[in-house]
């Protein structure tokens, strides 16, 4: 597959997921709801539809396709994981966390609105994600819906993304009297990054496998792919933070170095990090061998992650 073809697929999937989210964020209430205040739905929409690659929902869609599954249920699951991702960005950008003013080339949600609205928009995106997954249109099989909810909850919660964000703040020295960054070794950095970033990428792959009815062995293979992809994504992200400019990536760069934050790029050096990045792409591709040509798009996703420029 040519990179241009993959980019088109990614863009087309992003547009489809954006439409699904826009429909889901509408003013019409669902059974059990009383009112959807416009400021909440507006800020949710701003936060979630302000651009982005939509890689996590893309992984849901493409993994489900391995097993011949497409349609409304897949797209709803894809929208759900993107809701969680977007909530995490809204909260990460807050002054109490990363204190960022720009995201995807636009003012962050708390700058566009205010901090209170941004917190509530993030809360709404997070809770709505599980509403989407638990609702029957996502799957007629209640066991599938429960498995999707559990997978996303564990990836995004205290033992996954939230826990990883806490470790990241701790590594910055946020909770220590002297305020000095911790000197993490590579194992500690890998664990932190696997939680903060990798867990949700892995969840996207696993959710597609769940919808597709994958066997235990197939889910294990795809799990190896997801782990390699997640680590590759973070190394590529750290390289961008070191080398790219803010206009290119749509957010502030150089913050890791300014805060003395430990990354594999800073610990190993850029050349060693790039070599590891190439190795991870090969690992991801190798994990998909059993799926043959059906997995061509997922293989290209690993290459895209490693070579992206924003």
UniProtKB/TrEMBL annotation:
Annotated InterPro entries? Isoprenoid_synthase_dom_sf, Polyprenyl_synt, Polyprenyl_synt_CS, Prenyl_diphosphate_synthase
Q: Does the keyword tRNA processing apply?
A: no
State whether keyword Cell membrane applies: no
Biological process annotations from GO: terpenoid biosynthetic process
As recorded in Swiss-Prot or TrEMBL, the protein's gene is named: ispA
Record's protein name: Probable farnesyl diphosphate synthase
Tell me which GO cellular component terms the UniProt record holds: cytoplasm
Q: What cofactor requirement does the entry state?
A: Mg(2+)
Family affiliation: Belongs to the FPP/GGPP synthase family.
Query: Where in the sequence is the signal peptide annotated?
Result: none
The UniProt keywords, alphabetically, are:
Isoprene biosynthesis, Magnesium, Metal-binding, Transferase
Q: Which organism is it from?
A: Terrihabitans soli
